[in-house]
Amino acid sequence: MMIASNFKTNYTRATAEVFIKTVQAFLVQTHNEQEVRIFAPFTALNRFDEVKNLKVGVQNFYPVQNGSFTGEIGFEQLEEFGIESVLIGHSERRHILKESHALIAQKYDFAKARDAEIIYCVGEPAEVRMQGIDAVMSYLWEQFEGIDVHYEKLIIAYEPVWAIGTGLSAHLDDIKEVLERLREKLSKPLLYGGSVKVENIESILHVKACDGVLVGTASWNEEAFCEMIRIADSVKK
């Protein structure tokens, strides 16, 4: 399974290094083999002596190698730090920062052409959820338009928008239903994100179609994040 932490707009280079080294030490000491990802801010990137099952990735990038794009980060800057994993399509970029699906698809194609691991995020807002599961799935499938779902290094994260950072996690039955419907058409690993925390991660990971989690706020404590990784290692399917 994959246990991923999205730092969002948090952590400095110094504090991120402490966090990452703590998680590395935990993985080595416990011989834990879960796939771990930490998506840090650009300013916290560095060359970390990563263990094989931990990768530091980025939350965003502009789909160019380099060029005249004031304020943007291209792949040349990511390659300096050996970045191999990227988040694309997170709801905060779609809904708060108004990133269009056309740009998201452009980023996807660019990262794919560079053989990056892509965690592609999809999710529905509360008003769509209230219309029922058929409306939810129709909304989610629209977010796959122009996206190569057969890409070898694709991982899909289902994150209902109304559950991100609100403390409200989707009911297990809702998570199960959406992931199972996604699984009918998609063969890639499926993660769940949306107010995942130590108290509920085990029950979420026991959902048959769930291959891991993408965690925000609750993962910003080293001990809590390591505990999530430990719990994941105890879940047998």
TrEMBL record:
<keyword id="KW-0413">Isomerase</keyword>
<comment type="subunit">
    <text>Homodimer.</text>
</comment>
<dbReference type="GO" id="GO:0019563">
    <property type="term" value="P:glycerol catabolic process"/>
</dbReference>
<comment type="pathway">
    <text>Carbohydrate degradation; glycolysis; D-glyceraldehyde 3-phosphate from glycerone phosphate: step 1/1.</text>
</comment>
<dbReference type="Pfam" id="PF00121">
    <property type="entry name" value="TIM"/>
</dbReference>
<protein>
    <recommendedName>
        <fullName>Triosephosphate isomerase</fullName>
        <ecNumber>5.3.1.1</ecNumber>
    </recommendedName>
</protein>
<dbReference type="GO" id="GO:0006094">
    <property type="term" value="P:gluconeogenesis"/>
</dbReference>
<keyword id="KW-0312">Gluconeogenesis</keyword>
<dbReference type="InterPro" id="IPR035990">
    <property type="entry name" value="TIM_sf"/>
</dbReference>
<keyword id="KW-0324">Glycolysis</keyword>
<dbReference type="InterPro" id="IPR020861">
    <property type="entry name" value="Triosephosphate_isomerase_AS"/>
</dbReference>
<dbReference type="GO" id="GO:0046166">
    <property type="term" value="P:glyceraldehyde-3-phosphate biosynthetic process"/>
</dbReference>
<dbReference type="InterPro" id="IPR013785">
    <property type="entry name" value="Aldolase_TIM"/>
</dbReference>
<dbReference type="GO" id="GO:0005829">
    <property type="term" value="C:cytosol"/>
</dbReference>
<dbReference type="GO" id="GO:0004807">
    <property type="term" value="F:triose-phosphate isomerase activity"/>
</dbReference>
<keyword id="KW-0963">Cytoplasm</keyword>
<dbReference type="GO" id="GO:0006096">
    <property type="term" value="P:glycolytic process"/>
</dbReference>
<comment type="similarity">
    <text>Belongs to the triosephosphate isomerase family.</text>
</comment>
<dbReference type="InterPro" id="IPR000652">
    <property type="entry name" value="Triosephosphate_isomerase"/>
</dbReference>
<comment type="pathway">
    <text>Carbohydrate biosynthesis; gluconeogenesis.</text>
</comment>
